[in-house]
Amino acid sequence: MIITKAGRRMFPSVRVKVKDLDPFKQYYIAMDIIPVDSKRYRYVYHSSQWMVAGNTDHSCITPRLYIHPDSPCSGETWMRQVISFDRVKLTNNEMDDKGHIILQSMHKYKPRVHVIVHSAKLDLAQIHSLPDEGVKTFIFKETEFTTVTAYQNQQITKLKIDRNPFAKGFRDPGRNRLEKNIF
Amino acid sequence: MIITKAGRRMFPSVRVKVKDLDPFKQYYIAMDIIPVDSKRYRYVYHSSQWMVAGNTDHSCITPRLYIHPDSPCSGETWMRQVISFDRVKLTNNEMDDKGHIILQSMHKYKPRVHVIVHSAKLDLAQIHSLPDEGVKTFIFKETEFTTVTAYQNQQITKLKIDRNPFAKGFRDPGRNRLEKNIF
DNA sequence: CCCTTTTCACCTAGGTGGTAAGAT
DNA sequence: ATCTTACCACCTAGGTGAAAAGGG
């Protein structure tokens, strides 16, 4: 996943469905992203894989919480829709003041989804960390990813270009012909 | 104000500041638009004014409520910002299903702003009408306007073009030269 | 005749990876 | 040598009034 100073959307975006909420209770739904380990990685081109390239200490950093913009909302409404986190932005700027999720490049991460029971004390404009109770957290192994500032191999670049509507400008078939003719 | 079937933004947008809320209570803030009278108007070009052109019965129509997208939010947060209704859309389509505010063309209207105390029963996704209590309503005489499907005189057209960033394409000075040379 | 609808060029606003220069 | 930054062309997405066509 490319991360920049200004912030880039996470793509493909995390999308979930929820069940077994109380239809009449109010919930926040939120996402954060935590390190998979404390390793720094580098991509070894000739063997086409990520290799450990050192250690990092994530221990003192509390990950930022991204509250889904529909929050708070009734259980009934949440359960009726696919919940998409397509507007969350990732940044490598540790001083970010736009509320984006801050990550370090060349590290492995996994998103978490939190379902938070609304209580009178919670304010959408002020929640910056998870409350102590009333929270259920879910992770999905298949959503793990590695952060970069530029893609390291052409398979991932192609995948991104083919799937993301905003990258349609790079799908020009003439653009690929050159590469294909190399073979 | 131009209204269309698809819905157009209200411009200039209604912007308000609020004071004397309880900083720790939660509030919804909403807008609706009600008729100034039950008259239909037409614009008389040679006298440059709107004239009564018949009666209409608005009595059976409950105006649609536009909930400010930041709702619900704490009094403290509401008071700290200018509250702008720049995303509300107006339509002349009585069958509209996109939640836009429905108005009739060639009528006079005035926006109202409502400050609504949050109660456990209120759900952002389900409020479609004003609750019976816990509501304070404000009107501002200077926000009255007349609806049209095409502008009736060049002063208002010029005002709209000059102020709205999306109409910059019509500001081209060459465009006005033709009209000016008529005199 | 008067008002409405449809389509359009021309904007704002913002999301892509590429590329060359910069930084360490 | 390796990673990052700044800027770019090229997209998506959507908000303007103009103009011509439509409708009663």
TrEMBL record, chains A, B:
Source organism (scientific name): Erpetoichthys calabaricus
Protein name, per record: T-box transcription factor 22
Superkingdom of this protein's organism: Eukaryota
Annotated localization: Nucleus
Record-annotated T-box domain positions: 1-172
BP terms from Gene Ontology: cell fate specification; positive regulation of DNA-templated transcription
Residues of the full protein shown: 1 to 183 of 217
Keyword Amino-acid biosynthesis among UniProt keywords: no
Entry GO CC: chromatin; nucleus
MF terms in GO: DNA-binding transcription factor activity, RNA polymerase II-specific; RNA polymerase II cis-regulatory region sequence-specific DNA binding
UniProt entry keywords in alphabetical sequence: DNA-binding, Nucleus, Transcription, Transcription regulation
Keyword Repressor appears in the UniProt entry: no
